[in-house]
Amino acid sequence: MMRVLIVDDEPVARRRLRRLLRAHNDVTVAGECGDGALAVEMIGTEKPDLVLLDVQMPELDGFQVLRELSPPPMPEVVFVTAHDQYALRAFEVHALDYLLKPVQADRLALAIQHVRARIADRRQSSDPRILALLETLAPAAKRLSRIPVRSGERLLMIDLREVDWIGAADNYVILHAGDKAHAIRETMNRLEQQLDPQRFIRIHRSTIVQIDRVRELIPDFHGDMVVVLKDGSRLTLSRGNKRKLEAMLGWNL
What we know:
By secondary structure, the protein is an alpha/beta fold. The protein has helices at residues 11-21, 36-46, 62-68, 85-93, 105-118, 128-140, 188-194, 239-249, and strands at residues 2-7, 27-33, 50-54, 76-81, 98-100, 146-151, 154-159, 165-169, 172-177, 180-185, 200-204, 207-210, 214-219, 225-229, 234-237. It has two domains: 2-140, 3-Layer(aba) Sandwich (Rossmann fold); 147-249, CATH 2.40.50.1020. It is built from eight helices and 15 strands.
C-alpha cells in the first residue's frame, strides 16, 4: 500500500483529496494536517510514501516544510497549488509533479502513477529534483521594497522600511506604519512570500511584524506570547511560530 499524507490549510481541499484517493485501491491515507509545522512533525512520525503538499500555507509554506525535513531521504512529493505562475514554472523546469486546485481526478491519478514508478528508486536517497528546486527558489524569490496603495485618485508608494506590522482583515491586509494604516487587497500568504525574510516574520496566522520593531515579549495565560513593538502595539505570537522567532532573534523564549 502507498501511504499518503495530505497537507493543506483548507479543510475543503483536504476532504476533496481524501475523497479522490478512495478510487485507488493501493493507496491509504496515513493522515492529514492543515499547517506546515505539523506537517514536518507528521512526516517524521508517519513516514509516508507520498505527501500531497499545499504550496501556500500560513506560518510554514510548502517549500519551507521541505527545507525543514532533515536528514534525508524525503518522501515523494506532489505539490498542490492555486494558479501561482512562479511556482508552476519552477515545477515544470525541474519536472516535478503538481496539481492545480481544484484537483481533478484524472490529474491526481496520473501523478500517483508517476509516484508508483519512482517509489522503488528513491528509498535510499532524496529526490534530487526537489533539492534542486529548493536551491533555485531561494535566490530567485522576488522581494518587495515598496508597495503601491490607492488613496482616492492617488497612488501612494509605501516604503516597507516604514512598516511596523501587517495585519489581515477579510480580503485585505493592513500595513501599519507609525500612526497610519493602509489597506491593500491582497492575501497574507502571497504578501509574505514577497517580503524579505531577514526583516519580516509571520508571528500569527493574521500578523506579520518587522523584526527590528520588536521591543519585548511577554508570556500570556494561554501558552502564547505577547509581542510588544516599539510603538506600543501588542500582538500575539502563536505557539506554532515561536521557534521561527527564536531562531531569527537568537533568543531562547
